[in-house]
């Protein structure tokens, strides 16, 4: 925010600048020997021209801007403001003969005023930059991390500008990488385009790059994967800008740049699903999600909540996980009727009580034991939960005439080779059998590996905690 003292300082600078520009214009016009009559006119012209200039600059917003972020838009404002003052001077000279100067003086005054006032604003920005260059632990420019930006397009240029505005981050952009042959050898804001993607390992070593930022939001996952594979040949830290749809407003901040995620390494784009089209049957209905505290169940709840069901029942055996998803949804959707239900799907009587009381129309059955090695050691629990638990919920859905029942299954149910896969295949068969003679529409949806879900390998690799790698080893029988 521009304080009053800073605004007054800017007013004083502009007042001096406009009069200095007029005096210098007279010196240039008359080769350093200003006629006495024009000096007298200049003396009487000082106060009215100062008042008019300050008023015009105020109306143009000169004193409401943060000039340390000056851009081309601000430069255009300076041109407009000084031009308006010059136009008013011409009008004054036409009507007030006592204040008449040669017209060339007015044009020179305009040009000089632009240079002087623009220079004062540029100095403001440079002063701020050098004042803050010692931030980030007192590092000098020579100690900043060397950065390479992949993508010399609009996104790359915005990232460069953002980094230049944030010296506190201690990041210095050394160059750009782009495969467009027409861009090679050119520069953006003084930063050169050094080469193509294949040259990254050599350039990283040559310029001692410590960080690489991928700034190609329109790139496909396959293209990103290829770039990441090249970057992995170096020791530089790798970061990436989000996809183009997340940058649709054209604004990029440092906060948008993230670490490379496992999804960025996939060689294909995710399947696009029109959720609005297929989830219309959720609106106004009582929806039950079993296993609502799990990774898949909780995400189902988040998606379902968007479609304004009459009531959303969060059923789970673990009170902590149910508390967390209930608290989260309560904050995100305060108007939604959300009810946490603590129950074990193996308890047939309790499941019947829930169906009898709430009469859910749509059931998503995501409750299951899914950890393959643990189920190999505890096959009885896998059968009780995945098979008998599913039977209890499916029979209750049929008995209380739910409209739809969806079993969340797994791709491991295809030709199962593990206890977990076999029990989930049995659960699918149960749903198929009940569905043949029921008014409820039953279906089973098989999920593959869900990236980032609890118990999957990705969170373990990310955790970097001692023992994380050991937890990936097979459990002895």
3D structure, described in words:
- The chain has 477 residues and is an alpha/beta fold.
- It has three domains: 4-131, no CATH class; 141-265, NAD(P)-binding Rossmann-like Domain (Rossmann fold); 278-457, 3-Layer(aba) Sandwich (Rossmann fold), CATH 3.40.50.720.
- The chain is 47% helix and 13% strand.
- It has 15 helices and 13 strands.
- It has helices spanning 4-29, 36-59, 72-95, 103-131, 154-165, 200-207, 221-231, 275-278, 295-305, 319-332, 348-358, 372-377, 379-399, 419-436, 457-463; strands at 145-150, 171-177, 187-188, 191-195, 211-214, 237-240, 258-259, 286-290, 311-316, 338-342, 362-365, 404-410, 441-447.
- The strands form two sheets. Strands 3-4-2-1-5-6-7 form a seven-stranded mixed sheet, with helices on both faces. Strands 10-9-8-11-12-13 form a six-stranded parallel sheet, with helices on both faces.
- Helix 11 (348-358) runs parallel beside helix 13.
- It is elongated and about 110 Å long.
- The relative contact order is 0.05.
Rg over CA atoms, rounded to whole Å, is 34 Å
Q: Give the neighbour order of strands across the main sheet.
A: 3-4-2-1-5-6-7
Average pLDDT, rounded to a whole number, is 78
Count of all domains: 3
Query: For the report, how would you describe the main beta sheet?
Result: 7 strands, mixed
Give the overall form: elongated
Number of helices: 15
| CATH architecture field of the largest domain | 3-Layer(aba) Sandwich
The CATH homology group name of the largest domain? NAD(P)-binding Rossmann-like Domain
**What is the CATH C level class of the largest domain, in words?**
Alpha Beta
End-to-end Cα distance, whole Å, is 67 Å
Q: What percent of residues adopt helix (DSSP H or I)?
A: 40-55%
Helix-strand topology string = HHHHEHEEEHEHEEHEHEHEHEHHEHEH
Number of strands: 13
Structural class: alpha/beta
């Amino acid at each position: 925010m521009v304080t009053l003292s800073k605004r007054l300082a800017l007013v004083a600078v502009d007042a001096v600048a406009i009069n200095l520009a007029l005096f210098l214009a007279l010196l240039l016009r008359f080769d350093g020997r200003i006629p006495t009559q024009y000096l007298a006119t200049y003396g009487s012209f000082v106060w009215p021209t100062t008042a008019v200039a300050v008023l015009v600059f105020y109306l143009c917003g000169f004193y409401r801007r943060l000039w340390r972020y000056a851009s081309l838009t601000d430069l255009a404002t300076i041109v407009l403001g000084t031009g308006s003052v010059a136009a008013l001077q011409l009008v004054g000279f036409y009507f007030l003969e006592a204040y008449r100067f040669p017209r060339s003086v007015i044009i020179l005054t305009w040009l000089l005023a632009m240079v002087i006032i623009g220079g004062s604003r540029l100095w403001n920005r440079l002063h701020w930059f050098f004042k803050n260059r010692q931030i980030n632990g007192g590092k000098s420019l020579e100690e900043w991390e060397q950065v390479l930006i992949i993508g010399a397009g609009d996104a790359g240029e915005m990232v460069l500008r953002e980094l230049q505005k944030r010296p506190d981050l201690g990041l210095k952009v050394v160059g750009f990488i782009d495969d467009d042959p027409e861009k090679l050898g050119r520069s953006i804001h003084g930063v050169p385009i050094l080469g193509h993607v294949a040259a990254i390992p050599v350039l990283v070593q040559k310029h001692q790059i410590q960080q690489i930022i991928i700034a190609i939001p329109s790139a496909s996952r396959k293209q990103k994967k290829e770039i990441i594979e090249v970057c992995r040949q170096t020791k530089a830290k790798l970061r990436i800008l989000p996809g183009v749809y997340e940058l649709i407003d054209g604004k990029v901040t440092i906060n948008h740049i993230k670490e490379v995620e496992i999804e960025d390494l996939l060689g294909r784009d995710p399947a696009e699903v029109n959720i609005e089209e297929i989830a219309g049957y959720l609106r106004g209905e009582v929806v039950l999600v079993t296993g609502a505290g799990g990774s898949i169940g909780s995400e189902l709840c988040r998606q379902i909540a968007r479609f304004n069901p009459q009531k959303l029942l969060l059923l789970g055996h673990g009170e902590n996980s149910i508390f967390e998803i209930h608290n989260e949804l309560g904050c995100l959707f305060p108007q939604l009727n959300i009810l946490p239900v603590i129950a074990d799907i193996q308890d047939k009587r309790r499941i019947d009580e829930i169906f009898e009381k709430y009469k859910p129309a749509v059931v998503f059955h995501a409750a299951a034991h899914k950890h393959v090695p643990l189920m190999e050691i505890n096959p009885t629990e896998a059968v009780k939960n995945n098979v008998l638990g599913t039977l209890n919920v499916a029979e209750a859905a049929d008995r209380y005439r739910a409209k739809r029942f969806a079993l969340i299954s797994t791709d491991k149910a295809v030709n199962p080779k593990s206890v977990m896969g076999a029990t989930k295949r049995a659960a699918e068969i149960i749903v198929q059998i009940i569905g043949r003679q029921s008014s409820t529409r039953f279906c089973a949806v098989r999920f593959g590996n869900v990236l980032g879900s609890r118990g999957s390998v990705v969170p373990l690799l990310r955790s970097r905690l001692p023992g994380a790698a050991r937890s990936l080893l097979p459990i002895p029988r």
